[in-house]
Design brief:
mainly alpha; DUF5578; ARM-like; Armadillo like helical domain containing 1; ARM-type_fold
């Protein structure tokens, strides 16, 4: 037989639930305000005590209301925050299960794709999905089985709020950890994000891909083309993350196509160059700012090649066999993009200073006068040479692959004019915050 105290508690609960059931939009908003204010941070047992062991009854009403009203995009934030109090409470697994049984995950994912829903409401949905994913492997699998990766990735690409995009990154990072059944699905979803139009989404996808790559352990063939295309951005923070990912990928089975792709980017296609020249001829005002993606890729490829070469002499030797010297010299002759000239010159300096066979062939191809200018001015060479010297670089035919077959590129045959390489020099010394202003074009 229930005590008078218990009967009073039950009566209060029933009265509260009846008030909710009979309340209109404004009244429910006030109820939610009060609930959020008084129950934020409470544990599961504390919520049960607050609702006389009937908290699940109120949670069911909240989720039902959410499923009825979410299509309109009206009043979602308070509903989602209230549900979040239940789901994030300590010792509240029963609430999570009840939420999922009513179709909570599908509702949260559908909210992400609705145009009528505000960005803040979508961010609350992402936070609830984080709570679900962080509850364990089976919950991560449930999100993925509900086509969650696609919905979440599309939302990341389309979101206009960097703060919200960072919340999405946290969710994707959670989904790739401890989720062996679907970790490849998340990995592929991140790769699919790389061509999107949002620089922030690209940056976050590249960051998360580095983690995902370590977890998955194998590569998807499409990652090479996608990451190389990401180098064509004018956003240096994206370019930085792309190069960091490239540094990781050279240790995987895509090493050869990746290096080939980087070397090939040093020479933009004739069609692209002709189109660019025509545009500048017709509109001279664009000459200061108009650089096609291929020129941005060219400059970034030169930067990446130098970073990789500094990081590993074995990788540097592989690139020599892929004609990197010839292509770097050609990039130095690109009078339409001074940043390509500068970064290619820096990269070539390393190869000349490190490999005697490269020094010999470059000196012979450039001629003494141009070679002396190269040694003296380095990355500023492009400001010191005339059109004839630029043409010499652009049409060079240096081919040291055959010479390499006859040479033994051991440590004894390497040049170290400045002594052992400082570990600090092996770092990414062309960080985007220290980049030349022209590269922001």
């Amino acid at each position: 037989m229930t005590s008078i105290k218990e009967q009073a508690a039950i009566s209060r609960l029933l009265s509260f639930l009846q008030e909710w059931d009979n309340a209109g939009k404004v009244s429910r908003s006030h109820i939610l305000d009060n609930f959020i204010e008084t129950n934020q941070g409470k544990t599961g047992p504390e919520l049960e005590q607050e609702f006389s062991q009937g908290a699940s009854l109120f949670l069911a009403r909240l989720v039902t209301c959410l499923r009825i009203t979410y299509m309109t995009g009206s009043g979602l934030e308070k509903l989602l925050r209230s549900i979040g109090i239940f789901l994030s409470a300590v010792s509240s697994n029963r609430y999570l299960i009840e939420f999922l049984e009513i179709g909570g995950v599908l509702t949260l994912l559908e909210i992400l794709g609705l145009e009528k829903v505000k960005e803040e409401d979508k961010k609350e949905s992402i936070r609830l999905l984080q709570v679900v994913a962080n509850s364990g492997r089976k919950y991560k699998e449930l999100i993925c089985e509900s086509y969650g990766v696609r919905s979440i990735a599309e939302f990341l690409a389309n979101s206009k709020s960097e703060e919200t995009q960072e919340e999405v990154q946290i969710l994707l990072d959670s989904l790739v950890h401890g989720n062996p059944k679907y970790q490849n699905q998340v990995y592929k979803g991140l790769i699919a994000l790389l061509p999107c139009a949002s620089p922030k989404a690209q940056q976050l996808a590249l960051q998360t891909l580095r983690t995902a790559q370590l977890i998955v352990g194998t590569t998807h063939p499409s990652i090479v083309d996608c990451v190389l295309k990401a180098l064509g951005t004018m956003h240096l923070e994206v370019q930085y993350e792309a190069i960091e990912l490239i540094k990781d990928l050279v240790d995987y089975d895509v090493r050869l196509p990746l290096l080939k792709g980087l070397v090939a980017l040093l020479i933009p296609s004739i069609k692209t160059s002709q189109q660019h020249h025509k545009i500048l001829t017709e509109c001279p005002l664009l000459q200061l700012t108009a650089h096609p993606a291929s020129f941005l890729q060219q400059a970034a490829a030169a930067k990446a090649i130098r970073v990789l070469a500094l990081h590993s002499l074995r990788v540097a030797e592989e690139m020599l066999r892929l004609h990197v010297v010839r292509n770097l010299m050609a990039a130095m002759g690109n009078a339409d993009h001074s940043n390509s000239q500068r970064l290619a010159s820096l990269a070539l300096q390393f190869f000349v200073q490190t490999f005697p066979v490269v020094e010999e062939h470059v000196r012979r191809s450039m001629g003494e006068e141009l070679y002396e200018l190269f040694l003296r001015y380095g990355e500023d060479l492009y400001m010191k040479i005339d059109s004839i010297q630029t043409d010499i670089l652009a049409v060079n035919e240096v081919n040291i692959a055959q010479a390499l077959e006859l040479s033994d590129l051991t440590d004894g045959n390497l040049n170290f004019p400045c002594g052992p390489v400082d570990p600090n020099q092996m770092a990414y010394i062309t960080h985007f915050q220290e980049e030349d202003p022209e590269s922001k074009e």
